[in-house]
Design a protein that fits this description.
By secondary structure, this protein is mostly beta strands. The protein has two helices and five strands. The termini are far apart. The relative contact order is 0.32.
């Protein structure tokens, strides 16, 4: 079993399109479209999950979120 796959998004990103590493590792003849995983992550979410067309799970993380200070 393969390690869990991760996609990392910047603080303002809401969409992504990345190849599925598990599909690429099979060395089967697949089109570039078949291995491409695309999706969205709400701007207020820090983590999400998606699955490629062949069923491999992918974790989507948000990094570099800006900290907001509360001023009173």
């Amino acid at each position: 079993m393969r390690e869990r796959q991760h996609v990392w998004l910047g603080p303002d990103a809401t969409t992504f399109a990345e190849p599925c590493e598990a599909c690429l590792a099979t060395h089967e003849p697949l089109s570039a479209y078949a291995v491409l995983v695309s999706g969205t992550l709400r701007r207020d979410a820090d983590v999400g999950f998606t699955t490629c067309r062949r069923g491999h799970r992918i974790v989507v993380h948000r990094v570099g979120r800006r900290a907001f200070a509360v001023v009173r």
